[in-house]
Each structure stands twice: as C-alpha cells, then as structure tokens.
C-alpha cells in the first residue's frame, strides 16, 4: 500500500509519503495534533488531500491522472473511536447492513468466521444500547469487516474504553490479525497498544513522517523519541519451546537466545508470541553474573549509547539479530566505559507476554 498525500489547513500541513506492507497491522503513531486522523481520513477520501493512494494494486486516488474515488468506492472498512452503530438495528442487522452492500463476487470474509473471531455470535439479537463498550466496538469491527474491505482503517478504536474493556478487546484484534488477510492501518497514541499489535510503525510529527519501519526496529532506535525515558520498550517475536508445570516457567526461543518467564497459563508449545522487555528492566554486566536471582542472562553487543533523562543513559544492545534497550544510570555507563562494539552480558529482570 502506498500513499503520498498533501493537505493544507490554516495552521496545519499534512505532507506524508507512506510505504506500507500489504498485510498485518501498521500503526500510525504520534502526539496529539500531529495529523494521524487527518492522514487516515485522507486515505479514506473523507478529506480532500492532494496526491496518490494505491491499495493492493487498486488506485483509490491519483490526482496526476484526475482519479479520485469517493469513500464508498474505495473498498475500505473504517472503525471510529466510538462505535457508530445504527441504534434502531440489532447487532445482526447492523452487520448485515454492510454485507448486503457487498457484491457476492467481492465477499472474501465468511460471516460465521467473523462472528467467531470477534466472539459476537451470542449478541446477534441485541440492540447496541444493551451492549458494553467493548462489545459495541467488536460489533463495529465486524460490521466494517463484513464488507470484505481491501484495508481496514481504525482510528483509536480502544481509546474510549477503560483499561479492563481494552484488555478484553485486544485479544480479538490479535485473532483477526492471525486469521484474516486484511491489512489494518491503526491510529493510536498509546505506545503499549502499538508495541503489542503493530508489525509496522509510522511515526508522525507535525504532519510529516519522522520515520517508518518494522515496529521492533523502530522501538529500539536511539535516534527516535520512542526510545526516550521510563517507558522505552523493546518487543521480540519468540516461539514457545516448553512449559514446566511445576515451576510455571515457560522457555521461549528468539533470534538471540532463550528467555524464561513465569506464565500463569501454560502457553501453547510451538506458538509464536510477542514479548515485551522494558528498558528499565535490563541491566548490563561486563562479566557473566553468577548466583543471581534474575532468570535471564544473554550475551550482547553495545550498538550505541545516548544520554536519556537527567541522570540516565539509554543503551542500545544487540543479541543475535534482536535489538534491546537498557536504561541505566549515567554514572554506571561511565563506570563501565561503554563503547560501540563492546561485548557484555545483559540481565533481563522482567519479560512480559504481550498477546
Ligand atoms: N476539521 C478541521 N478543521 C481545521 N483544522 C483541523 C480540523 N481537524 C483537525 N484539525 C487540525 O489539524 C491538525 C491535525 O489534527 P488531527 O486530528 O489529524 O491530529 P491527531 O494526530 O489525530 O490528533 P489526536 O491524537 O489529538 O486525535 C491539528 O492541528 C488539528 O487542530
């Protein structure tokens, strides 16, 4: 998918060039007012930006050749912050409203599969007013997907939900991603959501693309603001090798070694899982640590070091082909004489399963 878009407002200019994968979830991320929604609405044809938009070989817009498809002809699904369901229609009729407008030849998503993936089969007879916020949003996603779109556009779909409801909906988004072959462009300003869901990340600043690339790579780049401060995080895709029911420890393999973590529920052996390692949970040692309570020690190479917030240094390290961050005191960075290319050991105090 590619989009080159320019739009001028009185005090805001959008000028982006997006090259996105035709699969998985791509996050459009950045601070409030940077243009995420404007960008999404321009791709949808809800704003009249100038430029070119091509999705899966379909040209939605190309001003050079005077092509501009209206929204209803772009083959897209759109999910807003607040589920915009028809209040007088049942869940069944809301979903079928989208389905009826899709010619049979274009239907690629089986309705039963959609209901199953989003866990809404038992809600079909209900009216939107009787649903919880999380259920409403799942129905809104089903309605958008029922039209078998070329692309699903989601604008902060979880931001109106409290933490509990958000945690309830996230696994459904994981399942959609695993089972449906529809690329998603996902607007968010919550880094935890992006780290969990997105395989690709576009970082926006003041209407422009600051950087774009694989989420894992973007999160660990010291030249980007994502790696600053206490929330800096790395994500790793890993495979479950084993689970020990006695110790509750699971062992996962990634490109760089093995990690062990306590998992209350045994994960499926052989499954691919995404792990999060926060920079503040990684410490550095020049010698292999001995007799430590910390479960995970890996050998690594220093990639770069940068001053972080006052008193702290952020260190990018590589283990195998995997990039991690360590947030340590500046004092420690000086004591260890850290330099690029240096070999050392990292201790990982905490690893979390994200999906
Ligand atoms: N309809 C509009 N008319 C004029 N200016 C607008 C309009 N909608 C948005 N803007 C301005 O355009 C800029 C980008 O807004 P946009 O909503 O795209 O940002 P955002 O990154 O999605 O922000 P948020 O995370 O707060 O939703 C902002 O300066 C905003 O004030």
Could you walk me through the main structural features you see in this protein, from its secondary elements to its overall organization?
With about 350 residues, the chain is an alpha+beta fold. The chain has two domains: about 220 residues, 3-Layer(aba) Sandwich (Rossmann fold), CATH 3.40.50; about 120 residues, Beta Barrel (OB fold (Dihydrolipoamide Acetyltransferase, E2P)), CATH 2.40.50. The strands form four sheets. A six-stranded mixed sheet has the order 7-8-9-3-10-11, with helices on both faces. Strands 2-1-4-5-6 form a five-stranded antiparallel sheet, covered by helices on one side. The protein has a five-stranded antiparallel sheet with strand order 14-13-12-15-21. The structure holds adenosine-5'-triphosphate. The site of adenosine-5'-triphosphate (ATP) has 11 residues, from α1. Adenosine-5'-triphosphate binds next to α1.
Summarize the topology.
Elements: E1 2-9, E2 12-19, E3 25-29, H1 36-44, E4 50-55, E5 58-62, E6 67-68, E7 76-79, H2 91-100, H3 111-118, H4 133-146, E8 151-155, H5 163-179, E9 184-188, H6 191-197, E10 200-205, E11 208-214, H7 215-219, E12 233-244, E13 249-254, E14 257-262, E15 272-278, E16 282-285, E17 296-307, E18 312-319, E19 322-329, H8 330-335, E20 343-348, E21 352-353
The protein binds adenosine-5'-triphosphate.
Whole-number total of structural domains: 2
Strand order of the largest sheet: 7-8-9-3-10-11
Give the overall shape, derived from the CA principal axes: globular
Which spans have pLDDT < 50 for at least 5 consecutive residues?
none
Summing up helix and strand content along with how strands pair, one would put the structural category as alpha+beta
Mean of all residue-level pLDDT scores = 93
Number of strands: 21
Q: What is the CATH class of the largest domain?
A: Alpha Beta
Name the hetero compounds present. Answer: adenosine-5'-triphosphate
CA-atom Rg in angstroms: 22 Å
- Number of helix segments? 8
Q: Helicity, in percent?
A: 10-25%
CATH superfamily of the largest domain: P-loop containing nucleotide triphosphate hydrolases
> How is the CATH topology of the largest domain named?
Rossmann fold
Distance between the termini: 26 Å
Please identify, by name, the CATH architecture of the largest domain. 3-Layer(aba) Sandwich
Give the amount of beta strand, in percent: 35-45%
Order of helices and strands: EEEHEEEEHHHEHEHEEHEEEEEEEEHEE
């Amino acid at each position: 998918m590619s989009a080159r878009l320019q739009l001028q407002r009185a005090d805001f200019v959008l000028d982006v060039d997006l090259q996105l994968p035709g699969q998985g979830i791509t996050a459009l991320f950045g601070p409030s007012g940077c243009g995420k929604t404007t960008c999404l609405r321009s791709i949808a044809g809800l704003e009249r930006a100038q430029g070119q938009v091509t999705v899966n070989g379909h040209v939605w817009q190309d001003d050079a050749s005077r092509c501009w498809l209206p929204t209803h002809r772009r083959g897209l699904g759109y999910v807003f912050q607040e589920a915009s369901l028809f209040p007088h229609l049942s869940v069944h009729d809301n979903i079928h409203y989208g389905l009826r407008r899709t010619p049979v030849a274009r239907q690629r998503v089986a309705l039963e599969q959609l209901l199953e993936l989003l866990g809404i089969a038992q809600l079909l007879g209900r009216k939107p007013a009787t649903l919880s916020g999380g259920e409403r949003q799942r129905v809104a996603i089903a309605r958008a997907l029922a039209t078998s779109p070329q692309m699903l556009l989601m604008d902060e779909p979880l931001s109106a939900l409290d933490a509990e409801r958000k945690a309830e909906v996230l696994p459904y988004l994981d399942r959609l991603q695993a089972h449906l072959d529809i690329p998603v462009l996902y607007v968010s300003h919550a880094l935890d959501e992006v780290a969990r869901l997105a395989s690709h990340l576009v970082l926006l600043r003041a209407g422009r693309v600051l950087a774009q690339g694989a989420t894992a790579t973007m999160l660990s780049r010291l030249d980007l603001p994502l790696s600053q401060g206490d929330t800096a995080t790395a994500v790793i895709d890993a495979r479950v090798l084993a689970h020990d029911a006695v110790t509750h420890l699971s062992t996962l393999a990634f490109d760089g070694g093995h990690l062990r973590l306590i998992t209350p529920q045994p994960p499926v052996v052989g499954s691919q899982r995404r792990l999060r390692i926060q920079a503040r949970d990684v410490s550095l040692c020049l010698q292999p640590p001995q007799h430590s309570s910390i479960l995970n020690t890996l050998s690594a190479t220093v990639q770069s070091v940068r001053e972080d917030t006052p008193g702290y240094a952020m260190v990018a390290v590589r283990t195998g082909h995997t990039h991690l961050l360590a947030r340590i005191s500046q004092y420690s960075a000086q004591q260890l004489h850290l330099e690029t290319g240096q070999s050392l050991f990292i201790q990982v105090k905490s690893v979390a399963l994200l999906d």
